[in-house]
Amino acid sequence: MCWSNAAALEASAISSTRSATPFLGLVFGGAQVLVTTSANDHVTLDDVEFARSLAREAAMFAGAVERMFHGLPNGPAVAGR
User: Fold this and answer.
1) What is the dihedral of CA 81, 58, 42, 34, to 10 degrees?
2) Which strands make up the sheet holding 31-36, listed edge to edge?
């Protein structure tokens, strides 16, 4: 995905085959972050818990951005997607 604005953000998650290592790559201006599992051939419970936590935090961030965009207070989730 790529959003065209002053600071473009690109995010991608790739897991094309069962044996492929899942990863999340974020590029924001000059900053780049690659998030992946602890080992490329094995996924642990810690990896699963981290991925779920990351998803929860990303959802809360998205909700806060949506509320701010719509001029709403930064309270409990409005969109809940």
Assistant:
1) 140
2) 9-14, 23-28, 31-36
**pLDDT of 18-53, one tens digit each?**
557 888 888 888 899 988 888 877 889 999 999 999
CA distance 15 to 41: 13
State the pTM of this model: 0.62
> Alpha helix locations (H) across 1-81?
45-69
Single-letter amino acid code for the residue at 67 = R
Q: Based on the number of CB atoms within 10 Å of its own CB, is 27 exposed (0-12), middle (13-18) or buried (19 or more)?
A: middle
3-state DSSP assignment of residue 48: helix
Contacts of 74-81 with C-beta under 8 Å, sequence gap 24+, read: none
